[in-house]
Amino acid sequence: MRDVLVMGGNRYFGKRLIDRLIAAGDRVTVLNRGSAPAPAGAIHLVADRDDEDALNSALGDRTFDVVVDQVCYTPRQASIARRVFAGGRTRRYVMTSTVEVYEYEDSLVYEDTVVPVREDAVDPRTVAVDLQLPWQRREFLETHYGEGKRQAEAVLAADGTEFACTAVRVAHVLGGADDFTGRLDHYATRIRTSTPIAVPTENRPATYIHVEEIADFLFWAVGENFTGPVNAASHGLLTTEELCAAVAPHIPDGRTVFQNVDVGLVSPFSFSRSYGMDNSRATELGFKFGHVQEWLPRAVAETLGADKDKDTATDRGVADAGGGDVR
Ligand SMILES: NC(=O)c1ccc[n+]([C@@H]2O[C@H](COP(=O)([O-])OP(=O)(O)OC[C@H]3O[C@@H](n4cnc5c(N)ncnc54)[C@H](OP(=O)(O)O)[C@@H]3O)[C@@H](O)[C@H]2O)c1
């Protein structure tokens, strides 16, 4: 039996990861601020992971084989984790990162290519860390999501970290009735009302992963020993047009209209630069990915399920600067 701590774990694929760990017979501890009860069978610790004293005191003298950190967004949070889990508190640390680490100023080199991005395009050991940036400010964090994740990865990858660490760079996640992001609803609402969907003039495809598949992936990563960044994305690329083609059958009277924009807000799954991740590292390590075209219809049906109140769909998920991700 492994002792596994999941930080977060009550919203989306964190819950599914916990289900898998419990089913496998692991002892699971969940740490969050207590907005929802922990799943049956898990030990629940309540603390804000931003508060180092509170985190230390909630953990007490517990030790873990593996920590899965689902909610590390900043180098400050990573620094706290690096200190708190030192001294033998964990052997291995799996940080949930994002495809958005690949979007930064100099990465425009990828703009004109659809060659999938490999992990070495962002080496966390070479990323500069600035703990003085206003990471505690919500608006700052929202506009520096990729930078926060990059710097968090860098803190954990730096020399001196006392546990083995991997950063799972997660593609855009689709599927599940509990997709809280509103990104598919963004398309559904526009198709229903024939409202134009804003896409960049040069609209690039991206990689995605199903919500169950990323839970499988993290569960698998818990049992492995690899370190360093690893991309997690299903095989295959998806364009905004293909995504809308999967949404449209759910809205028989709707109409899909695209509007090209050169500057400003675009729909959440539209990207002015290539957003495909190469998944060969994880494949070589032994994880078998599905193909996005195989699971896309199911994912859309789960999220736009008939029992959902379509009229409550909002514009959440509209993204600037060539596409959005989830926070
Ligand atoms: N969805 C996507 O498309 C996508 C793509 C790429 C990467 N990601 C990454 O996926 C991760 C999120 O996965 P998930 O949605 O499945 O999350 P999750 O594991 O369900 O965890 C989310 C929960 O963490 C808790 N939490 C948030 N801040 C906390 C804090 N300061 N201290 C303690 N607990 C805190 C919150 O519960 P309480 O309010 O109870 O604390 C929240 O509901 C993020 O790292 C995100 O960057 C997502």
What is this structure's SSE topology?
Layout: E1 3-7, H1 13-23, E2 27-32, E3 43-46, H2 52-59, E4 64-69, H3 75-84, E5 90-98, H4 138-143, H5 145-157, E6 164-170, E7 172-174, H6 183-193, E8 197-200, E9 208-210, H7 211-222, E10 228-232, H8 240-247, E11 258-261, H9 280-285, H10 292-303
Parallel strand pairs: 1-2, 1-4, 2-3, 4-5, 5-6, 6-10, 7-9, 8-11
This protein binds NADP nicotinamide-adenine-dinucleotide phosphate.
Shape: globular
Provide the spatial order of strands within the biggest beta sheet. 3-2-1-4-5-6-10
Q: Which stretches of 5+ consecutive residues score pLDDT under 50?
A: 309-326
Strand tally: 11
CATH topology of one domain: Rossmann fold
Name the hetero compounds present: NADP nicotinamide-adenine-dinucleotide phosphate
Order of SSEs, N→C? EHEEHEHEHHEEHEEHEHEHH
CATH architecture of one domain: 3-Layer(aba) Sandwich
Helicity range of the residues?
Answer: 25-40%
The first-level CATH class of one domain is given as Alpha Beta
The CATH H-level superfamily of one domain is NAD(P)-binding Rossmann-like Domain
Strand proportion: 15-25%
Average pLDDT confidence is 91
Give the terminus-to-terminus CA distance: 32 Å
Oligomeric composition of the shown chains: single chain
